[in-house]
Every structure is written in C-alpha cells, then in structure tokens.
Amino acid sequence: MSDFxxxxxxxxxxxxxxxxxxxxxxxxxxAHEWDEREETPWPIIQExxxxxxxxxxxxxxxxADKTGLMLALVNEEMSWGxxxxxxxxxxxxxxxxxxxxxxxxxxxxxxxxxxFGTVEDPKLAAFAVTEPDAGSxxxxxxxxxxxxxxxxTWTLDGTKTWITNGGIADxxxxxxxxxxxxxxxxQASFVIPGGTPGLxxxxxxxxxxxxxxxxxxxxxxxxxxxxxxxxGGKDRLDERLARAREGKRSSSQAAMATFEASRPMVGAQAVxxxxxxxxxxxxxxxxxxxxxxxxxENQAIAFKLADMAMRIEASRLLVWRAAWMxxxxxxxxxxxxxxxxxxxxxxxVWVTExxxxxxxxxxxxxxxxxxxxxxxxxxxxIFEGTSEIQRLIVARAIxxxxxx
Length: 404
Description:
The protein is an alpha+beta fold. The protein has helices at residues 10-37, 42-50, 56-64, 69-81, 83-90, 92-102, 105-111, 234-245, 254-287, 299-327, 336-359, 370-377, 387-399; strands at residues 125-128, 144-148, 153-164, 171-177, 187-193, 199-204, 215-226, 289-290, 293-294. The chain has 3 domains: 10-115, Acyl-CoA dehydrogenase/oxidase, N-terminal domain (Butyryl-Coa Dehydrogenase, subunit A, domain 1, Orthogonal Bundle), CATH 1.10.540.10; 125-245, Beta Barrel (Butyryl-CoA Dehydrogenase, subunit A, domain 2), CATH 2.40.110.10; 254-399, Butyryl-CoA Dehydrogenase, subunit A, domain 3. It has 13 helices and 9 strands. The strands form 3 sheets. A 4-stranded antiparallel sheet has the order 2-3-7-6, with no helix packed on it. A 3-stranded mixed sheet has the order 1-4-5, covered by helices on one side. The protein has a two-stranded antiparallel ribbon with strand order 8-9. It is globular, with a radius of gyration of 21 Å.
C-alpha cells in the first residue's frame, strides 16, 4: 500500500502538464464548435489517439499508479479543457472500469484494448446500466439475461437509456438481471461487441450540457452472445448467486463495483469544470473596471472568489483521498467515494453560477465560456448516482442504519 500524499511525483507532474497542454491547445479552441454541433468530436478523438492520450497503454499506466492520483489528474485537466469533449474521449473508461472490476484476467486482456481500437482506427466503448424505469434504483433493472446450457449461450433483452457512446460504441458492457428475485445481487455484466445482431441505438438525446458527448438509448432484442462474454465467468456467477440465495454477503455487485471505482474520477471531472470557471472569472475580475477600479477590489466579488477557491480545494482533497483509497483497496467506510462525487459535483454547479454572476451579462451569453461550463456542470449532480443517492450512501455508512 502506498502512503497517501498530496506531493505529486515527477511522473505525475509530467503527465499533468502533458494533458494540460493538450486540453489548452487542442480541446479548448474546439469546445464551442462541438458544443454547438452536438456531435461526437471524432477529429479530436483521433488527435488524442495519435499523441497516445486515448490508448490502452496510457489508461493502463494510469490505473497502475499505486497512489490512484494519476487518473484523477488526467480527468481534471481534460475537463478543464471541456467536459463534453473530455467525456467523448474518456467516456470509454467507464466500460473499461466495468471490465476491470468484473472480468477475468483473460477477458481484461482481450476486451480492454478493443475499447480503444488503434491509432489509425480509434473505437469507443459504452457502459450500459440505466434504464427508463431504473435510474437511481439499480436493483430494479428489467433487462434480462437467460442462459442456455446446451449451447453455452446467453440471450439478452431490454432497453438501456442515457448511455454515453450508446449505439456507436464498438464494445458495450451491459448489466442485466439473471435472477430478478435477488435484486441488484442477481445481476451480471456482459461484453457485447458492435455489430452483434439485435443490438441497436435508439433515441439520441439532445442535452443541456456536455453536448459533444454522445448520449443515447441502447436497444437489445434477442441479443445472443456466447458464454465467454459473461464477465467473470459462469462459475463465479453461480457461486455469487448461491451466496445471495443463502443470505450471505456478496463481495461485489455488477454495477456497484464499477461505480465505486469511477465516482472519484467523476468528481475529478467536476473539479476541472469548477477550476476553469474560477480561473476565468478571477482573471476577468482583475481586468474589469467599474467605478474607476477593478471589480476584484470589491468585497462582494473578492469574497465570492475566495469561497470558490476554498470549495475547489476541498473538493480536490476529497477526490484525491477517495482515489487513493480505491487504488489501495481501502474500504469506503464513510462512503468516501460518494462524498467526493457529491461535493465536487455540487461545487461545480455553485462555482460556475458564481462565475456567471461575476461576469454579469457577459456570463449569460454563449460568446463567453462560463455559461457552457454552468450547463456542463449540472450533470455532475445527476449521472453515476444523483447527489441524493450519494447522501443516502454516506448516511447509511456513517449511521449503520438502513435509511430509505
């Protein structure tokens, strides 16, 4: 286990600068265009693939960082550039996290590289959990997977919604129910390659923010996949289901194992958005003059900026602690992963709103980026578990009570 430290090592500082330069020179100049177009920014993804940022090797190196901070640094810098484009580039990592959390070593080696494709032909991946009637209530998934032992084949039917890269991904990691009576403990994850008969894209959503990130429904109609596509394998699933039926504690659940690993990274993205808005409004306040002096010299503005800085720093500390704990397999005894995601997400919404207020009318128009950052920030209180769900997790952790 590595010691928790806020002092970044040489490799981390080097990667941080490298990613920041990409965000500043490639992502930011293109952010407004792709927000307006509401399309997947394939030229930016290809550029990221060419320089090695969007690749299996880079993400593997980030996951190999024993401090857990490397991936948090990368997510913050990318979202500082633009959250929509960052999600378009790194949305695949949620599926990667799902494979790492639930797959065998052989499955990880086979499927994770395919989530990225090649430099010449980059691909995307999608993690499909949410359904029209099962958002925060993951235990009520209706997508069902049934097994035919004679042919060693699984058949999946159902509809997923709000899926990043849904329908355009080369690899879909789908969470489905195999035993409805067990709720979330009766679920399993499956890898479904693109082009599999019965897998199709439904409605593509036009969103308030993160518009460069593709979000759509995924339809599964009589989708048949061989047994080897079950992450973790049939024997491990049967053992887990048997423990659940006996009332014994299960070591992991298909969806939650992924969310627990990813929530600090989502929090890091929110920190990046908040930092972008803070830095922009701070510079604006230093240059904008009213009544003969820079507006930063007014307490009303200066105190807003001070509060923005404090909340961003507090958010980053929560994210880094949770990222370190996840990397070192330290249990989230107080819901630390949920703490980091909830606090950072709400901080991003609050900070970007204050940035608009500091800029006044300029903050409300599209020619200035703070209105886009505010639109982008709101999703961080909703996806991968709403702020209310995060509070529920923390409340249960600190009280030991089954709070509803």
